[in-house]
Each structure stands twice: as structure tokens, then as C-alpha cells.
Specification:
The chain is an all-alpha fold. The chain has a domain of 60 residues. It is 98% helix and 0% strand. The protein has one helix and no strands. The longest helix has 110 residues. The model has no long low-confidence stretch (mean pLDDT 84).
Length: 112
């Protein structure tokens, strides 16, 4: 019976040592998992920031597109105004030529 008790005691000690080693290994693995989770969390934060940056870039691109459209409209309106001004200048020049001819004609009448 003494051998049985001794055998049980040795088995218990070995089981205790094995359990302790497993516990230490589990603790080491738990620490490694925590480090990996912290790294993964950092990566997720960077992805979130990059996504926000991409959204900002898309918004800026959309605003730039709208600005280009508005500039095109303004340029079109300016070209139209220039063309209208050119026509008015030509009409004014024609009217001034008529006035000059009439003034010359009147001068010729009075100089006789």
C-alpha cells in the first residue's frame, strides 16, 4: 500500500508539474495573443484613417469637378459677352462712320 500511495503521490506531483508547465505556456501564449490583438487593432485604426482619407479625396475630387463645370460656364458666359461687345463695337464704328460722313457733308454744304 505504501508503494500505491507513493505512486499516487508521484503521479500527483507529475500532474502538478505538467499542469504548471501548461499554465506557463498558456500564459505565454496569452501574452502573444494580446500583442497580436494590439497590433491588429493598430492596423484597423490605420485602415480606418486611410478610408477616411480616401473619402476626403473623393469629396475633394467631386468639388473640383463641380468647380471645373462652374469655370466652364463662366468662361462660356465671358466669351459670349466678348462676342456681344465686339458686335456692339462694330455697330458703334458703323454709326460713327455715318456721323462723320454727315458732318463732312454738312461742312461741304456750308463751305460753298
Amino acid at each position: 500500500m505504501h508503494k500505491s500511495i507513493s505512486s499516487i503521490s508521484n503521479g500527483s506531483e507529475q500532474l502538478s508539474l505538467t499542469t504548471q508547465m501548461l499554465s506557463e505556456g498558456s500564459s505565454d501564449q496569452s501574452g502573444a495573443v494580446e500583442e497580436l490583438l494590439a497590433s491588429f487593432t493598430e492596423i484597423l485604426e490605420q485602415v480606418k484613417k486611410n478610408t477616411e482619407s480616401a473619402d476626403e479625396v473623393r469629396n475633394l475630387a467631386q468639388q473640383s469637378g463641380e468647380a471645373v463645370k462652374n469655370i466652364s460656364i463662366i468662361i462660356g458666359n465671358s466669351l459670349s459677352a466678348v462676342a456681344n461687345g465686339e458686335n456692339l463695337t462694330k455697330e458703334t464704328a458703323a454709326s460713327l462712320n455715318i456721323i462723320v460722313k454727315n458732318v463732312d457733308g454738312t461742312r461741304n454744304i456750308y463751305s460753298l
